[in-house]
């Protein structure tokens, strides 16, 4: 099959439709590159989630990733100024806002900023040693309603690759729509352990449209839409397939956010060969997807050249019950032509200590397949989660999972403790996991069966322009395998 072509008018139509909505409130002008995205794993989303549990921001605010720099700053500033909030919550927002400005707002008279970072990475387990020394240069430039950014990475050490662009592109606003084009790691939120439909391990190249300023829809309340179109140039089994993501969130009540997520992997050119768990040898593509096929895929129709995933999720704030906590859950399905008795679920609880709003505890359960079945009478044919049809490399790009870190069939219990210093200059995260990876899991060969894991991560900013980072993780399987990683890094902001 030849590479699929997407009509240029399609994106133009979507953009025009979204621009027709009038945002609820426009963002104030923010000094610096306000229209470039905040990295999906940035500490500011963690602060927003704490503030959600405290009732300082609307539930689900932290799940809209990525957000433009200016929007994140606006949310922190609004919480810091809200006199209706408890003083501890306002103090947390003020401290986070100060650290945020130190990191992102350029010096007076400049419209650019960035960081220089060096890191030492290593592995443990069967092969202990240093992977290499990594150098990073990140910068941002603002020009009117648009901004550009880039993060360049170079590694020195055994097997090191040439310098590469890890993330970067251009972001800007057109009416009520935020438009981003370039390379970025995206996520459609699930929980602390990651999303079931799309997680932020792999970098995607393409275009993202979003409405970060919500618009009101009768019956659904404040609504936001995110649409992504990407090309997976580094996918192994199929040459340059397309990847489409869609997320719509709604807030029908002040304490509730609901969302629908969808991702479609399709097109490209299959060179022929075997697919997972199928002894038949398939020949190369001889036909291509036409415009009607592509439209059908976008509308949910199945073809022989796509892999679709979808989920529904809900996020509930318990602040109305005077409990500083969030409850969330997600129910996901593999390709719609497969069994609905073979789903995936994720459920969790995040609780913040009200008197000490910088300390939070999370429990989360994730399961795919048998451990996730919600009805005993459903057809239980395997949906081959994250393995599907011609995309024989699985839901993986450059060795990085596109889906949940569990990797597919199995289950995982996660317990997590997070701490932010009163001035937001110290951040510590500790987590423990109990996992089981079953047959057809993407990680079954190297990490089979039951396993225990632990991780520790800490960031500290001793001065306004300097930050140090330490992380270490390990997982040990009952079958005798062990995998460990560590990193030590320092960054200077300018």
Architecture overview:
The chain is mainly beta. The chain has a single domain (8-493), classed as Porin (Beta Barrel), CATH 2.40.160.130. It contains 5 helices and 25 strands. The protein has helices at 8-19, 43-53, 69-81, 87-104, 291-298; strands at residues 112-125, 129-143, 146-156, 164-174, 177-184, 204-210, 215-217, 221-231, 238-239, 242-253, 256-266, 269-270, 273-275, 278-282, 306-317, 325-333, 344-353, 356-368, 396-397, 400-401, 410-420, 426-437, 449-463, 466-477, 482-493. The chain has an 18-stranded antiparallel barrel. A two-stranded antiparallel ribbon has the order 9-12. A hairpin with a 7-residue loop joins β15 (306-317) and β16. α2 packs parallel to α3 (69-81) and α3 (69-81) packs antiparallel against α4 (87-104). It is globular. Residues 1-32 have low confidence and may be disordered.
* Helical fraction: 10-25%
According to DSSP, the number of beta strands is 25
- The general outline is globular
Radius of gyration: 22 Å
Structural class: mainly beta
CATH superfamily: Capsule assembly protein Wzi
Q: Quick one: CATH class? A: Mainly Beta
Number of structural units classed as domains: 1
Q: Tell me about the biggest sheet?
A: 18 strands, antiparallel, barrel
Q: What is the CATH architecture annotation?
A: Beta Barrel
